[in-house]
Write a structure and sequence with these properties.
The complex is a heterotrimer of chains A (311), B (317) and C (329).
Chain A lengths: L2 H4 L12 H18 L1 H23 L31 H37 L1 H16 L2 H14 L4 H31 L3 H9 L3 H37 L11 H7 L3 H6 L1 H29 L6
Chain B lengths: L1 H28 L13 H11 L5 H13 L5 E2 L4 E2 H36 L4 H15 L2 H15 L17 H39 L2 H8 L4 H14 L3 H22 L4 H10 L3 H29 L6
Antiparallel strand pairs in B: 1-2
Helix pairs in contact in B: 1-12, 4-5, 4-7, 4-10, 5-7, 6-7, 6-10, 7-9, 7-10, 8-9, 10-11, 10-12, 11-12
Chain C lengths: L3 E14 L2 E14 L3 E5 L6 H9 L7 E10 L2 E2 L5 H7 L4 E4 L13 H12 L4 H14 L5 H5 L8 H13 L5 E5 L7 H18 L2 E6 L2 H7 L2 E6 L2 E7 H6 L4 H9 L38 H5 L5 E2 L4 E3 L5 H6 L2
Parallel strand pairs in C: 3-8, 3-9, 6-7, 7-8
Antiparallel strand pairs in C: 1-2, 1-4, 4-5, 9-10, 10-12, 11-12
Classes of the chains: A mainly alpha (311), B mainly alpha (317), C alpha/beta (329).
């Protein structure tokens, strides 16, 4: 039954040289269990669908390339334009797909950054403790005390004031999001690290006289990996939501580069809002569907990978 | 207990100082201020104004002045609104508070009930439905659902007003005023509740599931107690206990989220104040608001910890 | 039979898992007389706890289910009762104590509150009466300063004291049957002795039957009148205690007794039964013990032996005794 996956957290008890064989069968078992969770699988499928739609979809569209066709402006959905057109005559469906590219990329990239920074700092803090721990944790506390939304808004405003070119804004937004994202992650990783380092098998490695780096990388990190995967997956949803809020307020990526958030913002005037729902409902729905699919998948992952979650 | 309090308070104060410095520097280094944004003034006049308001002094000096004034209760003067910040706060904050309190109440009420039932009937269709609803609530962007509801209920169906706190131009008082406010309050409260419902329900559900598996629940059943007693006296108490720590965090979260809600619904609260002073670069106000939330966060954390210590007999006071 | 308090006939409790059906209790029959102490012995996972839980009605769906049999308590078939009737019997007619006293009590309620609950529920006592009785009970289980203890919380007491409280709760309504599931396993040896003492005292004072589940043969020797040995969900041997210890019939029982280290006897190597308990999902039509049995015969590999009487108060399920059993039919 779940005895095998129960060993994930204390799995290092097996001798290091057997670790690889044990690990691959554990992963395989986990994947098998994951496949049985229909909800999680459908979440995964939807995410893949959105990715394909946004990254490959525009290649099939006859409207990509930002052609403004003023003759066709503000048309409701029709056979020629499945989601209608906007005030510059651009095909909404294509723009939604292109916007998805940005939103998804920013969401994913900022998560990767957050996880990288957060887990590194958290691991170091938890492992070495002492002064290093105090410093890192105080900084994290500080960042957590200041509300993230106003902080991001300020940063966004700074971007506008410094007239950062639109292309670079995307990258800066990624960095901004990871900046507010890493403290929470660092806390979690540090907590795991603190409890793991006291386990018996870690004391065994001390007795064996292994070097710090080997201990960190070969024994502790693999045990944190399942937790990290789960947090990372669930983090992407949050990043995508944050990015959309920023763009909605004009403080993230701005026009003409479309993101789902700023498409909704563009349509946030009296007439468009009331009479042209095809301009803002599709991007909003895209955000919703993507994030919920990611969350459901992440939850399924957590059921499978978190040894504390036994069915 | 007292040493613990003293340590915590000291730490709190240090963090708040550090936060205030960070916030101040952040705003100070942002290019442009209220005066430079004003197109009507000549450059010389701008310099003059800056001198008068002390905006051309070095950063640290300005910070020291700000802090000093703060201790005297003077949080600065809003340049855009031409009123002291504290007074402005006072005018707007109660509106935000109203939304916050009402939606918190509903959120907690609904999530406890749903979470407990879902946990008790784990694996049933009700539970699966609730799980999907929870995910939906956690995945929808706040501004989008706000817009959707406005379109649906205010524009298309015309059941509820689309924004504001009172109908424009009305000077109703007493009961009629309350009715108006309630009408206007409905949609924002619904959105705020929906957004927080997700994670809180899930939290209660998972707590309850963990608690039901515990040995002492088995003992309670073995004693032949009525199932209702087992659930409420034994399970629920233990499941709700860790939730006390959340109470403290709700406070700052609510005011932070109000930024978006108040903009969408045109609700005259401090969130809206913040957003409007954003575009006009009214930094004293922006700093005041950010500091306010930071203070709330720190107080909230302390409150949570204290409340928890009081409630859980296992924790030594 | 008239003086049987508890008569379990052909009880089967199955668990339905993703990997298959586990027959945790497979066609188990046993009897407990009034005032008798019956011990169920066996390794972890043999089904002894599940048997007890089935009697109490604490098998939780949707995965676990009592699929067949009869549990007769003093004339009433418990399995025929509805949920509410079952609940009334729990705590009143049957009391149960568990293995882990530290986690078996609610951490946010006082000891007194938890003792009073069954008194109020089953005996309809008022709060005042219940509190008085609760304090009496605490004293009866040998804890001094009962008033103070009644107002304290579980985390303030030691494991031994908590188990005494558990006993107090279980016997508070003077049940006819007390089920004790490994009551001393989690406790130190000296505390073990005290707990067993308390159980013995109650047994004498109130003619209470005890169904004691344990894997510790020392406890069996101390407490049991009658012993039932279980393996992989089935009863493999049962008998009166002194007879069983003197002449164990089933190879498994023999192995268990041999494995117990004896004081004052130095052994070069401690004996342990070779092999492992079979995977409950991979059971075949055979004697479940055959792959670990040193007397394994051909028939043991292909057919399961039935439980047969071998004389008064003795039953064995083993092909070695087929001929002997035939004589006693």
């Amino acid at each position: 039954m779940s005895a095998m996956s129960g060993n994930l957290a204390s799995g290092g008890a097996k001798a290091p040289f057997k670790a690889n064989a044990v690990k691959s069968s554990l992963w395989r078992q986990s994947i098998k269990r994951l496949m049985r969770n229909k909800l999680a699988v459908s979440g995964f499928v939807i995410v893949i669908f959105m990715i394909l739609l946004c990254f490959i979809g525009p290649l099939f569209s006859p409207y990509s390339g930002n052609h403004n066709n003023l003759a066709m402006m503000n048309k409701a959905p029709s056979a020629k334009h499945w989601l209608g057109t906007d005030q510059l005559g651009r095909d909404v469906l294509t723009r939604v797909m292109l916007a998805g590219r940005i939103s998804l990329t920013v969401g994913f990239a900022s998560m990767v950054l957050s996880v990288f920074i957060g887990s590194l700092l958290g691991a170091v803090a938890g492992y070495y403790r002492g002064v290093v721990d105090q410093i890192i944790m105080r900084i994290a506390d500080l960042l957590l005390t200041i509300p993230s939304l106003p902080l991001l808004f300020i940063a966004g405003a700074m971007l506008s004031a410094w007239k950062v070119p639109t292309d670079y804004r995307m990258y800066i937004v990624m960095i901004m999001l990871s900046f507010v994202g890493w403290p929470g992650l660092a806390r979690l990783v540090r907590g795991e690290m603190l409890s793991l380092r006291e386990r018996e098998y870690m004391q065994a490695t001390i007795v064996l006289g292994l070097r710090d780096r080997r201990k960190l990388f070969h024994h502790l990190l693999p045990n944190i990996t399942p937790l990290l995967i789960v947090i990372a997956t669930l983090n992407i949803g949050g990043s995508i939501l944050m990015e959309s809020v920023l763009s909605f307020f004009g403080l993230g990526v701005i026009q003409p580069t479309p993101t789902w958030g700023n498409m909704i913002d563009s349509a946030n005037n009296l007439i468009d809002f009331q009479e042209r729902p095809w301009l803002w409902i599709p991007p909003g729905l895209c955000i919703f569907i993507t994030v919920i699919a990611i969350n459901i998948f992440g939850d399924g992952l957590r059921d499978v990978l978190d040894p504390k979650n036994k069915r | 207990m007292s040493t613990y309090l003293v340590k915590r308070l000291t730490y709190m104060i240090i963090i708040l100082f550090a936060a205030s410095l960070l916030i101040f520097c952040l705003y100070a280094f942002t290019p442009g201020d209220f005066i430079s944004g004003n197109m009507k003034l000549s450059p010389e006049r701008k310099e003059e104004l800056r001198q008068i308001y002390g905006l051309n002094k070095p950063v640290l000096e300005r910070y020291a002045i700000w802090m000093k004034n703060a201790f005297h209760g003077d949080f600065g003067y809003s340049l855009a609104q031409q009123k002291p910040i504290l007074q402005l706060f006072n005018e707007y904050i109660w509106n935000s508070f109203l939304l916050a309190i009402v939606s918190t109440f509903f959120t907690w009420l609904i999530s406890v009930i749903i979470g407990v039932i879902a946990a008790y009937k784990q694996y049933s269709w009700f539970d699966s439905l609730i799980m999907v609803v929870i995910f939906a609530a956690m995945s929808i962007p706040s501004f989008f659902i706000g817009l959707l509801l406005i379109k649906g209920f205010a524009v298309d169906l015309k059941w509820l007003p689309p924004g504001g706190m009172t109908t424009t131009g009305s000077n109703a008082t007493g009961f009629a005023y309350m009715k108006e406010v309630i009408q206007h309050m409905t949609l924002p409260v619904v959105v705020m509740t929906l957004l927080s419902l997700g994670s809180l329900t899930r939290y209660f559900r998972s707590n309850m599931i963990d608690v039901i598996k515990q040995d002492y629940i088995r003992t309670a059943r073995a004693k032949g107690l009525k199932e209702r007693k087992v659930l409420f006296t034994h399970a629920l108490r233990n499941a709700l206990l860790p939730a006390i720590t959340l109470v403290g965090f709700e406070l700052p979260a609510l005011f932070g989220g109000s930024l978006i809600i108040e903009k969408i619904f045109n609700w005259p609260g401090i969130g809206q104040l913040y957003m409007s002073s954003f575009s006009s670069r009214d930094y004293p106000l922006l700093m005041g608001f950010t500091m306010f939330i930071a203070i709330l966060t720190v107080i909230g954390t302390l409150l949570s910890d204290l409340l928890y210590k009081l409630a859980d007999p296992r924790v030594k006071l | 039979m008239a003086n049987h308090l508890l008569d379990i006939e052909h009880l089967s409790t199955y668990f339905y898992t993703e990997e298959g059906t586990v027959k945790a209790v497979d066609d188990v029959s046993l009897q407990v007389r009034k005032g008798e102490t019956v011990c169920i012995v066996g390794e972890s996972g043999c089904g002894k706890s599940i048997t007890a839980m089935s009697v109490m009605g604490l098998i939780q769906g949707p995965n676990g289910k009592v699929v067949g049999g009869k549990i007769d308590l003093d004339g009433t078939d418990l399995l025929q009762l509805d949920k509410n009737e079952r609940r009334v019997i729990r705590g009143k007619e049957i009391g149960m104590i568990f293995q882990e006293p530290m986690s078996s009590l609610n951490p946010v309620l006082t000891i007194g509150q938890q003792i009073m609950e069954p008194l109020i529920e089953h005996l309809r006592m008022s709060k005042k009466e219940a509190r008085k009785r609760a304090i009496e009970l605490i004293e009866q289980v040998g804890i001094s300063r009962a008033e103070q203890i009644a107002d304290s919380y579980p985390h303030e007491l030691s494991g031994g004291m908590l188990q005494r409280i558990m006993i107090a709760i279980a016997i508070s309504c003077q049940p006819k049957l007390l089920i004790a599931d490994e009551p001393t396993t989690a406790l130190d040896v000296t505390i073990q002795a005290q707990i067993l003492d308390i159980l013995r005292n109650f047994r004498e004072e109130t003619v209470m039957s005890i169904l004691l589940i344990t894997h510790d043969l020392g406890v069996v020797a101390e407490m049991a009148d009658y012993v039932i040995v279980m393996y992989s969900g089935k009863v493999v041997e049962e008998g009166e205690v002194t007879e069983l210890f003197a002449n164990p019939k089933h190879p498994y029982t023999q192995g268990l007794l041999r494995a117990k280290p004896i004081l004052n006897q130095r052994q070069d190597e401690l004996y342990s039964i070779p092999g492992q308990v079979p995977n409950p999902l991979e059971l075949t039509e055979s004697c479940y013990f055959h792959d670990r049995c040193e007397h394994c015969m051909e028939i043991c590999k292909v057919r399961r032996p039935e439980l047969r009487e071998l004389g008064t108060e003795q039953k064995v399920a083993c092909w070695l005794y087929e001929k002997e059993a035939a004589l006693h039919v």
